[in-house]
Every structure is written in structure tokens, then in C-alpha cells.
Design a protein that fits this description.
globular, 1 helix, mainly beta, seven-stranded mixed β-sheet
Length: 119
């Protein structure tokens, strides 16, 4: 089985920064599956639909939602099966639960980490 564990969420003031991490793990062939597949970050704010924030392929190609372009940076360490989301210039509207995903169709999900941007 695949396990995705997010960390790094918290409370930050507007204009601040946070770095989210997602550690992916699995035994046997799962480890190779992790390395070869896309990973992504989704978020869901209260009363809103879940939305894709950013994604990254195994080769490092990235994609961002318009609302976070220029502020957020997605990256991954393939050797460590870990993905990151550096979030700068945070806004109150970035407040949400952030989820890590694995797979071209977001086949696997983490449990989520809360990010709250408030003064």
C-alpha cells in the first residue's frame, strides 16, 4: 500500500511563508511506482470545492493554478520520495486543508494538513 504523510501546515500571517512536505512510502514495487508517477497538491477551503494547487511529474515538469503562480513552488526529491510546496506571500484566501496526491489521476491521497493565513 501507498502511504502519503503531509507536514508543515500551521498558522501564518498574511505575507508570510510556509513549506509543506509530503513523504510517500510503500514496500516492494510501490517504491518504484512512487518514483515514476506524478505528484500534486490539492486544497479545500471551507464551503468550497477541492482544487488543484500544483503538480509535478517524475521528470520535474510543473503546473500551477493561476491563483498561486509566482507565489508557490512545487518540487520533489525523487530519491527520498518526498514532495514539497514552498508557499510565499500567503493570503487569507490560501487558507485551506492541503492534500498531497500521487498518480496521474490523483489515485492516492494523504490525510491533509491545515494551513491558516490570518492576522
Amino acid at each position: 500500500q501507498v502511504q502519503l504523510v503531509e507536514s508543515g501546515g500551521g498558522l501564518v500571517q498574511p505575507g508570510g511563508s510556509l513549506r509543506l512536505s509530503c513523504a510517500a512510502s510503500g514496500s516492494g514495487f510501490i517504491s518504484g511506482f512512487i518514483r515514476l508517477n506524478n505528484m500534486g497538491w490539492y486544497r479545500q477551503a471551507p464551503g468550497k470545492q477541492r482544487e488543484l494547487v500544483a503538480s509535478i511529474t517524475s521528470g520535474g515538469l510543473t503546473n500551477y493554478a493561476d491563483s498561486v503562480k509566482g507565489r508557490f513552488t512545487i518540487s520533489r526529491d525523487v530519491a527520498k520520495n518526498t514532495m514539497y510546496l514552498q508557499m510565499n506571500s500567503l493570503k487569507p484566501e490560501d487558507t485551506a486543508v492541503y492534500y498531497c496526491t500521487l498518480g496521474a489521476l490523483a489515485d492516492y491521497w494523504g490525510q491533509g494538513t491545515q494551513v491558516t493565513v490570518s492576522s
